[in-house]
Amino acid sequence: MNYNAVNNIDELETWVKKALKIKKKPLKNKKLGKNKTLGLLFFNSSLRTRLSTQKAALNLGMNVMVMNFTNEGWTLEFEEGTVMNSGASEHIKEAAAVVSQYCDVIAIRAFAGLVDKEKDNAEIVLSSFIQYATVPIINMESATGHPLQALADAITIEEFKPKHRAKVVLTWAPHPKALPQAVANSFVEMMKLQKNMDFVITHPKGYELNPEITKDSKIEYDQDKAFENADFIYAKNWSNYNDYGQITNSDPNWTVTADKMKLTNDAKFMHCLPVRRNMIVSDEVIDGPNSIVIEQANNRTFAAQLVLQKILKK
Ligand code: AN0
Ligand code: CP
Questions:
Q1: Are residues 195 and 287 in the same domain?
Q2: In this structure, are residues 155 and 303 in contact, taking their beta carbons and an 8 Å threshold?
Q3: What's the pLDDT score for residue 27?
């Protein structure tokens, strides 16, 4: 079993229930991972994903090895049949096969390059590992998705949802650096699996996500209107998908402020973190009583632990 996309979740409700059970007794399966090794491979920075996945593995009694390809690993070649006479020192074929001998499960973080849309959509790094590794692969944020984040988001929404049918809003917010669409994509996909919730995406015109992902979701270009009656505001920046990887809007009116939150139904504020204060969200909102970002990050451990447990039990 791999966990590389939100669509690997067969039934979200059952997964969330199970994760909440794990949260209550995280050490219950302390022996399940004995003598098993998890390898975490990072092609980009991380705080939460690295530590929460490691924590989840430790809760299951696994051993963990971490490798940063950002500055320590050999530069890898992913193209077939290429003459390796420039930057890359090692081909993915050998690298994935070798790591598979040391690890029982491999988790990979490899962000979108945001230069070549086709290449990013092809998920070269993740799909090559899936192809050439001989052990299960977990996605820790790939070019187009962040399914461990989306699972943690679902757990968090379950914990904080109101008694009435919840309205969840994903809002774009400005950011000084071009960011991937992965977190937003997976959040949208996860929300499609929610049975009794209303879901609205709001962003400036031109900032449409991949239409294949959002085709069944409601888009409202007026942020104020989208915020009306919302029970959850999930903020996230992403760079332009049409004008690929570009920043074509930095309008501060899209920042989530206390005034904006007044339009909602006393909504909870969510963000995957790391977050730029007073760009994405004002201090007042993120420091306020309705901010659940810290608990949301806590739930990353139980999302990862559920996925590891499922893999170990297979
Ligand atoms: C990354 C992103 O937007 O994909 C990671 C988020 C979990 N964010 C940044 O690089 C700031
Ligand atoms: N939310 C998240 O994935 O955080 P990190 O980039 O710190 O892992």
A1: yes
A2: yes
A3: 98
Ligand 1 center to 211 CA (angstroms): 21
Closest listed residue to residue 190, CA positions, set 308, 40, 19: 19
Nearest ligand, measured from the Cα of 145: 1
Residues 164 and 279 in one domain: yes
- Domain range for residue 79? 2-145+300-313
Ligand 2: list residues with CB < 6 Å.
Answer: 46-49, 141, 149, 272-274
Are 122 and 250 contained in the same domain? no
E-strand spans in the chain?
37-42, 63-68, 76-77, 90-91, 105-109, 137-139, 166-172, 197-202, 218-219, 232-236, 268-270
Pocket of ligand 1 contains residue 147 by CB under 6 Å: no
Nearest ligand by distance to the CA of 109: 2
Q: State pTM to two decimals.
A: 0.98
Place of tokens 């290449």: 119
In this predicted model, what pLDDT tens digit does every residue of 102-117 receive, in sequence order?
A: 999 999 999 999 999 9
